Amino acid sequence: MRISVIGTGYLGATHAACLASLGFEVVGIDTSADKVAALSRGELPFREPGLPAMLAAGLASGSLRFSTGLSAAADCDVHFICVGTPQSRTGLSADLTAVFGVARGLGDIIERDCLIVGKSTVPVGTAAAIADVVRSTCAGHEVAVAWNPEFLREGHAVADTLRPDRLVFGVEHRDGSAVPLLRQVYAEALASGVPLHITDLPTAELAKTAANAFLATKISFINAMAELSDLAGADVVALADVLGDDTRIGRRFLDAGVGFGGGCLPKDIRALGARALELGAPATARLLGEVDDINQQARTRVVDAVLARLRAVDGNRVAVLGATFKPMSDDVRDSPALAVAGRLLGRGCDLRVFDPEGARNARAQRPDLTFAASIDAALADADVVVHLTEWPQFREIDPAAAAGRVRHPILVDARNTLDQVRWRAAGWTVQGVGRGACAPAAGVAVAGWLMQDPVPATSSDDLARR
């Protein structure tokens, strides 16, 4: 079977390399000549464990190649659409320019009966429109259209491609050619027992956006509970443990902190909300809008907490631990960590940012920030240390040694993943997210956070005026 993967970003490059590892003849296609040249040399523009070796093996065996011309896909049996669907510049909806560009291009070059499979995250209703576009330009060949949403986690993309926790085949007709072809593509995963859901096209399209919206809602919910916990003197971590033991809820994604980010969840909930309005479901759109607002508020609360601590010690040097939106990735798209750092810089703070993998991408996005070459360099003479991305390296910091490098041993743990008891024992003033009940001394609420020791109430605007 010959397969084309159109769009070689994070999703497409991973999908192409994994399909080649399964023995298929794969061509990856992209409009960027630089990207194609780099991939052809075995160079990835992003970090993903296990993928470099898989890419190299595919190129060496000849089962994987890359091209800038869509005509290279003309004789393929299956075409996977993996192009990006970013948030549009004019609103919250998804920009489908690339998706429909591929559909029109395929209609012009197809030379045989084939299957077109969408993997890009799109608003419900897109697949049917793509089918109309392709068939209006492709004469003389039978073209089936299916939707096969991806559920990749950055840092685990190879495993999620080869052994996903479920497969969804959205098809026009269950008795058509799409299902047998997709079963061939995913034969190994299906043989291992991966659950398969065969649905209509709209259900498959909704599967990805609904999953992301649910995860985003769960994260925003626990961050809302973190704010209440701080105001009431409760511990949101203990609360999440209690909730997590309810089998209807589960513990995963119930970690309060600085909120979610990345290239999927933020844009997907906004696009789903915009589509909900178009379809006449305003209550759904309002719900998703509140999820987004709570997520943004989580970032603001971290900024205000750091500024309040700086005011208490009359300082402005901040060590920022983390720039990527999650660990084990170099992705800084809509990163809460980078957003917090940028806001602190705008408030006049002197920042030193360290991230084990994301410094290059973060510097490209925020060249106005100062990046440290090591954890020690970031900590040097800091008035406040703020932990924003839960890299394992940060859990390994010796708090006693770190106390000797900073000017004031103050930690804002905005991910609640450091051993706060150990840090306090080493002489640090520690502030977590929603952990008011854990403070050893009487506290006062400041900007929605329970502080370990009393400081004058203030806000980021107050400090800016100062």
Notes on the protein architecture:
Residues 438-466 have low confidence and may be disordered. The protein is of the alpha/beta class. It has helices spanning 10-21, 33-40, 51-61, 97-109, 126-137, 157-162, 178-185, 187-191, 201-232, 236-244, 265-278, 282-313, 336-346, 359-365, 375-379, 392-395, 399-403, 420-425, 460-465, and strands spanning 2-6, 25-29, 64-67, 78-81, 114-118, 143-147, 167-171, 196-199, 317-321, 350-354, 384-387, 410-413, 429-431, 445-446, 449-450. The longest helix has 32 residues, at 201-232. Helix 4 packs parallel to helix 5 (126-137), helix 9 packs across helix 11 (265-278) and helix 9 (201-232) packs parallel to helix 12 (282-313). Strand 4, helix 4 and strand 5 (114-118) form a beta-alpha-beta unit. The strands form three sheets. Strands 3-2-1-4-5-6-7-8 form an eight-stranded mixed sheet, with helices on both faces. A five-stranded parallel sheet has the order 10-9-11-12-13. A two-stranded antiparallel sheet has the order 14-15. The protein contains 19 helices and 15 strands.
Summarize the structure.
By secondary structure, this protein is of the alpha/beta class.
Total helix count? 19
Low-confidence stretches: 438-466
Mean pLDDT: 91
- Strand-residue proportion: 5-15%
How can the largest sheet be summarized?
Answer: 8 strands, mixed
Distance between the termini: 67 Å
The structure class reads: alpha/beta
Helical coverage, percent range: 40-55%
- Widest beta sheet: strand line-up: 3-2-1-4-5-6-7-8
β-strand number: 15
Overall shape: globular
Using only C-alpha atoms, the radius of gyration works out to 24 Å
